[in-house]
Amino acid sequence: MSVHIYRGLEGVTFAETALSEVDGLAGRVTIRGYDLRDLVGVVTFDDIVGLLFGESLPNPTERGAIAASIRAAAILPTAARSAVSHAVTIDPMDALRAATAALPSPKNTDSATALSLIGNVAGILTLHHRLRQGDPGSLSEERDSRGTSAFLLHGILGQTPTDAQVRALDAYLVTMSEHGMNASTFVARCVISTGSDMVSALAAAVGSLKGPRHGGVPGPLLHDLLAIGEASKIEPWVRDQVAQKKRILGFGHRVYKVRDPRAEVLAKASLALAQTDKEKSLCAFVQEFDAITTQTLAELKPTHNLQVNVELYAALILHLLSVPADLFTPLFAAGRTAGWCAHMIEQHGDNRLIHPEVSYVGPRGREIAGI
Q1: Is 351 in a helix, a strand, or coil?
Q2: What are phi and psi of 135, to 5 degrees?
Q3: Are residues 336 and 301 in the same domain?
Q4: At 226, which CATH number?
Q5: 0.85 exceeded by the pTM?
Q6: Does 165 share its domain with 230?
Q7: Concatenated DSSP letters for 286-342?
Q8: Same domain, 117 and 45
């Protein structure tokens, strides 16, 4: 029987969601009805957490309670802390995956568990990094009222971040917090659909995010940008990459047929963060890379519609924040944990086992010789 194969499940709708809408034709992301462009630079990551779990933006008291719950959960359970300690020499994303799997399985699929998991991820990320730096004490020193972004930055930088740095990381985490039915979110919902728990779903989502076709691009992309170095080398580099049939990191997206709106908001946030001449020069270079690469790809691959995506400006803003490149994907996970958990709760509330079909194309009617 002939069946149509939806490779990559493109065009297949399996669920309804009230969390976010990604409009690839209009280039728009909305989170619970708010345009992302209206949120970034105005609300904090803790606000977005409250919005995802509570359907409305929290008031200052509620925001403070959310941040306090997340910080409290950053003090890890013994097994997870031990997993981090034993993972000091491995890649931060591998350490995050291992330590997440060591978290105790929660009984409930609810917002209280979700807040704990967001804090657990923040605690794993910062503890692993501080242990690598030989300074685990820095993790517990940041307890001011500026929220989760300040806590994360303090753990990464080893010092109290400036207000400008906190605003920039809030912009990044808000941007990355939720984005419809991407690969890792689908994985998380699949796990919950089996009746499993939120930690199991989180560990699976972390493993999915690690892939270079999902969340693992900004680090290697930054390497490319720094290697190119100057505007005159951009076009020859792009032409050479295309000639070698290599992917241009930071361009192209499964959903967007126009520029990724997340790139727009992170470009603006990066410019606001840049203070020194060197930082401003880097921002100008990345914008030139954006423009020249877009134009060159349109010439060389006119039918592919390769527009800039969020990864280019994610790499820029995290570099301006002095975040090490190998922490780019774990920090993405720290923000996306909010969206993952919201989807887990939504899936749990109206659950049906996710069980797609495949079309068998192998041999039939084979017999064992001699029987």
Answers
A1: coil
A2: -140, 65
A3: no
A4: 1.10.230.10
A5: yes
A6: no
A7: HHHHHHHHHHHHHHH-TTT---B-HHHHHHHHHHHTT--GGGHHHHHHHHHHHHHHH
A8: yes
What is the Cα 211 distance to its own chain's centre?
11
Instruction: Indicate whether 365 belongs to any domain.
Output: no
Within this chain, do residues 206 and 254 fall inside the same structural domain, yes or no? Answer: no
The residue segments making up the domain with residue 296 are: 218-320
> pLDDT (tens digit, 9 = 90+) per residue, 251-294?
988 888 889 999 999 999 999 999 999 999 999 999 999 999 99
279 is a domain residue: yes
135-183 pLDDT tens trace: 766 555 445 568 999 999 999 999 899 999 999 999 999 999 999 999 9
Same domain, 32 and 152: yes
CB-CB contact of 291 with 238 (8 Å)? no
Tokens of 80: 């997870």
Residue 161 DSSP one-character state: P
d(CA 49, CA 149): 12
* Torsion of Cα atoms, 232 then 236 then 237 then 240, to 10°: -170
How many other C-beta atoms are found inside a 10 Å radius of the C-beta of residue 358?
7
Count the domains in the chain.
Answer: 2
